[in-house]
Amino acid sequence: MEVLRLENVYKNYGKNEAIKNLNFSCEEEELFVILGPSGAGKTTTLKLISGLEEVTDGKIFLKNKLVNNLEPKDRNVSMVFENYALYPHLTVYKNISSPLEAIHLPKDEIDKKIKEIARALQIEELLSRLPSMISGGQKQRTVLARSLVKKADEYLMDEPIAHLDAKLRYQMRGEFKRIQHIRKVNILYATHDFREALSLGDKVLILNKGVTQQIGTPQEIFKKPANVFVANLLGDPPTNLVEVILKAKDGQYFFQIGNVSISLSKSLADELLSKINQEKLVIGIRPFDLHCYLKQEENAKIINAEVYMSEIAGHYNVISIKLNDTIIKIREEKSFKVSLGDKISVDFKEEKLDFFDAISGNRIF
After folding, report:
1. What is the pLDDT of residue 94?
2. Nearest to residue 221, comparing CAs of 209, 241, 207?
3. Ramachandran angles phi, psi of 230, nearest 5°
4. How many other CB atoms are found less than 10 A from the CB of residue 171?
5. What is 299-327 written as a DSSP string?
6. Which among 76, 199, 230, 295 would be 20 to 30 A from 362, CA to CA?
7. How far is the C-alpha of 170 from the C-alpha of 196, rounded, in Å?
8. What is the pTM for the complete model shown?
9. Is 76 exposed, middle or buried (0-12, 13-18, 19+ CB in 10 A)?
10. Distances in Å between the alpha carbon of 266 and those of 36, 212, 251, 297, 350?
């Protein structure tokens, strides 16, 4: 069942278009993620849905009811902001109870709901403490409890764990997934972190400067990015994007990158030629789909490449080579050791390549 739907939504601040023709829907019990960098329009979208901002054009529906002209209090949504926004003079219990007291629920019902959500979020022992007496992670759980304690059609979460340290963010990602599954709630979650988007989302919408770039499951957007922006947004290190020229000589096809030639099969060349009308295009390949060899492999796609940089990244190494003016990053096992200036061979499988139009940046296939 559809819980939330946006149709052709625009939001202008004077001449600045913050949101441009936004269309998406969220289903019952779905954790829907909006992913994008700062200025993408994530917070603005949540504010439009909650009623904190007015739509310039378009329609917003909650449970098939048009809500454009409804006050925030009448929309039955709950919003969590990036900052804690806890009342410092109230206990954790009183902070959580505030939205229930605002709608004048009986005290025994409030107490039951608070203890239930506190148990789910494992903060039962904190209920009598003030915010100054608990940790950052515990404060975030308190904010979540305050949001989730009141039944809502949609829970809007604006980068709720962005300011926590890496370990806490990892823990809280697991908490979100668990809570959403147990309580069967509808969550619209905004983040700039692709890891959060891919690990949490049932569906992901990618925004850039108010414009939709792609909507799909985490698997879909990761395996088949719609354009170079999406490809560059996902992954650490991100996808290698290289501008090449498709050329042919003596019946052989190859990509030309400056003075470097990379051979390709006739079947791939034929498929490309059937879909493009220019020689220039952008190829993309993820660092973990490239493989290095210390010896000069004659059949490798790239031979005699010079190591430009070598970095240790936890349990793996990132090797960089330079082709023309483009740095190519390769993720290798930690045991693979090279030094700057070493000559290596680099190989990959053609089916791991993505192809993008050099002008529009859109995916070719």
Report:
1. 97
2. 207
3. -65, -45
4. 13
5. TSSEEEEEEEEEEEETTEEEEEEEETTEE
6. 199
7. 9
8. 0.92
9. middle
10. 38, 35, 9, 21, 11
Phi, psi of 102, deg, nearest 5:
-65, -25
Q: What is the pLDDT of residues 228-251, one digit of tens each?
A: 999 999 999 999 999 999 999 888
Give bridge partners of residue 61 from the DSSP assignment. 5, 66
What is the rounded distance in angstroms from the CA atom of residue 195 to the CA atom of residue 30?
A: 18
Burial (CB count <10 Å: 0-12, 13-18, 19+), residue 330: buried
Strand, coil or helix: what is 275?
coil
Q: CB–CB of 246/235 below 8 Å?
A: no
Residues 37-56: pLDDT tens digits? 999 999 999 999 999 999 99
Separation between Cα atoms, residue 146 and residue 110, nearest integer Å: 12
- Band the pLDDT of 207: cuts 50, 70, 90: very high
d(CA 350, CA 128): 60
Q: Enumerate domains of the chain plus CATH numbers.
A: 2-233 (3.40.50.300), 240-357 (2.40.50.140)
Q: What is the rounded distance in angstroms from the CA atom of residue 90 to the CA atom of residue 97?
A: 10
